[in-house]
Amino acid sequence: MRVGIAGIGWFGFQPEVVDYSFREMMFKAAQRAYEDAGGLDPRRDVDAFVSCQEDFWEGIAISDEFAPDPIGGAMKSVYTVTGDGLQCVGQAYMMIKSGLFDVVAVESHAKPSDIMTLNDVMAMATDPIYVRPLGLDNVHALAALEARAYMSKYGVTEEHLDAVVEKAHKAGVKNPRAAYASPGRERSATPIVADPLREADIAKFVDAAVVVVLASERAVREYTDTPVWIDGAWWSTEISSLELHDWSFPIHAREAADGAYQQAKIADPAKEVGFAEVDNRYSFKELQHIEALRLAPKGLAKDLLADGAFCPGGRLPVNLSGGALAEGVPFEAHGLARLSYAVWVMRGDIKAEVDRRDVAVVHSWRGVPTTTSIAVVLRI
Prior knowledge:
The protein is α/β, with parallel strands linked by helices.
């Protein structure tokens, strides 16, 4: 049984959404998703709901208790996952594949503008014995260490990071959600945050909510004539101890991609995938994740980028949306942000510079200090 995406809705993608609470943002995104899915009635047509959220981000214990009402799931089956929105998609994918559900709605949201001590929250997620006592004033230092290890091992220079940032902002100009797109801004002119990372290398946070409606092959045609099929979904968590995981290469992203490719029967991703949306919340991570997803050999993403292979109109465009560097990072909704843009490109809702839109891979990483990645293969 195949699983298709019947509808997508979003709200926000602004540095600060002042007039709406996160619950109201969820409601607005859900309304738009259900309308996109042919005007389905969640109380009648949706069999189950899945919400991806992290209590730390909300500042509320058992924050998923707020999930049912805004998305139409009151008194219905609502499942909650502490993880990225793409993990929720994976859960919904399995639920439908089991044959027990026909329509499942997936939700994730973020309101980082409400958090006064964001660095402290992120630091709280680090190892309580060896890392947290260091009292890091800036948790981006952990990403900077990974950046230095990767750049040193594979010969990546700051000029390559310049190119990633420039590409992201140029692409973001065509993305109506890309609140941070700023073409012409020189990376080298921004201050150093944690060497070698500058301010322009680090994606800012953004308030957003995204809802995605998934349906079985027998049900999806009731809601849309242009479904995008999920052919594979996989996630992986590498060893959580920072001092023991691979600093120069994201093994978790490689394992997630390999699992999704195996499900989708993709043997050579670099040739079979038409375009990709990958996590680039740090500029060097775009290059890392391109290689981890087997879209380029290890250490060669920088050279292919210089040749224009991953630019709009190139052989294999990556982050036509501009990615997180242009859109911002909406916490756990980030994976759904990458997924939604890929779906719009595949449906033709967005006129993107891409030669092939029949197969796409979408990737998200949960960010510092985690070692969890999720990959989804889409096909039309």
